[in-house]
Amino acid sequence: MRKSISRRNLIYLSCAGTLACGLSACKQSWLQGGSGKDDLWRTPPSSTEGLYGFIDVAGDWAIKPQFNRGSNFSKEGVAPIFISRYVESQGNSLIYSGIINVSGEWIKEPELGLELDYEFSEGLVGATARKSPEYHSADDIGGYMDTQGNWVIEPKFSVGTEGSVNYFSPANSFIAESYAVVSILTGGDTESNGHYLFGIINRKGDYLLEPKFGFIDGYFYKGIPSVGLTIATKTSEKDALCGFIDGSGTWAIEPVFKRAHTFIGTYAWAKDAKTELEGIIDPSGAWVIPPQYTYLNPINESYAAAKDPETELVGILDLATGAWVKNPQWRYAWLANSNTYIIAREEKDGLVGVYSMQTGETILEPKYKNISYAKPLSIAQDVESELWGYIDKSGEWVIPPQFRYASSFYKGLASASSNK
Asked: Fewer Cβ atoms within 10 A, N terminus or C terminus of the chain?
């Protein structure tokens, strides 16, 4: 069983279908007489519909839409870029990746057959070297590049047809130095007769944990303390049970759960293997909130959204006591802005509004298809057009809904996809 665990901070929310339509609409034949494959990325598109660029806080294009995937700028002021060029005579696309600065200038020009991840972390970005520039294969291998596009860790880790190269995590309570989760294909020379095993490497590419686990998560929520345990399975079988290991690879909680999520503070979500109901466990593996919910979503180290088994409405639970702090009243709910706001949907397919966590009063009337809280502007999806734009604290459109995809601002820029 292949499990891809690359963490990406781009905001797709429920617009994945729209994104897929946007990409497919951009299929064009690029290969023309005399055009070499290595330079085909230079051919400008005839339309920017569905392509990605970067906007400023006024909603203007700071870097015009020209890329085939969204990405994020890092603290170093660089962003990895992905470009695809469809070749009608071949019936497939050639892929390229490069690196730009905040002015849109190339630090590393796009390279054929190279696929970079969505953003840099710890000064490195995951990079996949495709055996063929036209498609993924079991022979694709990954490594890591620096912000100048130089290989720091040469490609040697198995990526395969469904995987990706995971980002480097900063040191934390799990492992006291920067690290990344990687995988190798073993037991056969193809994905059909082999299986993947996961391990952890340091910045030199040396193993901190040998690849012997069927799956390792290894990543934690930024800004939230954790107990230093991560999810793992012993095998790569589809029905392998989940447990938790420490930084030495020792099982702290034996794999007995159907599914589990990363610890947030001292609590972790888990699904019972027998009943398949959801509850909360502590670092010993004991149930703090017994498995009794069909939907339970820890939002931070204090609260979780949960569906009441009787009413099937969602409220907010106190993880320490298991008691309702906001009674079930929504079809779906989650918290934002350090627990200040509840973002919720009152009906199953209804509109989304914002409510006060302290008083429960309505802050923004439910009139959006989706909202993602962010600073300085929140991202919202318009009901009629299903396009994305940006709203202020009063709910007014600051940047009208005009994008197929939108992300939060960082250093005055946000990745967005053009609708025209």
From this structure: C
Q: What is the DSSP code string of 45-97?
A: PS--TT-EEEE-TTS-EEEEEEESS-----TTSEEEEEEEEEETTTTEEEEEE
Q: How far apart are CA 154 and CA 152, in angstroms?
A: 6
In 10 A of CB 407, how many CB atoms?
Answer: 27
The helix (H) or strand (E) run that includes residue 21 is helix 16-24
- Residues for the chain: how many in total? 420
- Please, are residues 166 and 126 in contact by the beta-carbon 8 Å criterion? yes
Q: Strands 352-356 and 332-336, how do they pair?
A: unpaired
Q: What pTM did the predictor assign?
A: 0.86
Those residues whose C-beta lies under 8 Å from the C-beta of residue 75, and which sit 6 or more positions away, are none
**Counting Cβ atoms within 10 Å, is residue 107 exposed (0-12), middle (13-18) or buried (19+)?**
middle
Of 365, 378, 297, 302, nearest to 332 by C-alpha is 297
Token pair of 77, please? Answer: 């002021």
**Exposure string (b/e) for 289-328, b if CB count within 10 Å is 16 or more?**
bebebeebbbbbbbbbbbbbeeeebbbbbebeeeeeebeb
Indicate if the alpha-carbon torsion angle 308, 11, 201, 176 is positive or negative. negative
The two three-digit tokens of residue 138, written as one number: 């079991």
The answer to whether 305 and 328 have CB atoms below 8 angstroms apart is: no
Dist. CA 56–CA 183, nearest whole Å = 38
Beta strands in 14-51 (DSSP E): none
Pick from 420, 418, 419, 416: which is nearest to 54 by CA?
416
Q: Give mean pLDDT in consecutive 10-residue pieces for the chain, a chain of 420 residues.
A: 35 28 36 64 90 97 96 96 84 91 97 95 95 82 97 92 85 96 79 81 97 94 88 93 97 98 94 97 96 92 92 93 93 81 88 89 93 92 97 96 96 95
Q: Are strands 296-298 and 303-307 parallel, antiparallel or unpaired?
A: antiparallel
The residues, any chain, with a CB within 8 Å of residue 185's CB and separated by 6 or more, are: 138, 158, 160, 191, 194, 195, 196
Distance CA 379, CA 52 (A): 16
CA distances from 239 to 192, 270, 286 (A): 17, 15, 22
- How far, in Å, CA of 133 to CA of 135, rounded? 6
Spatial separation of the C-alpha atoms in residues 153 and 148, rounded to whole Å: 14
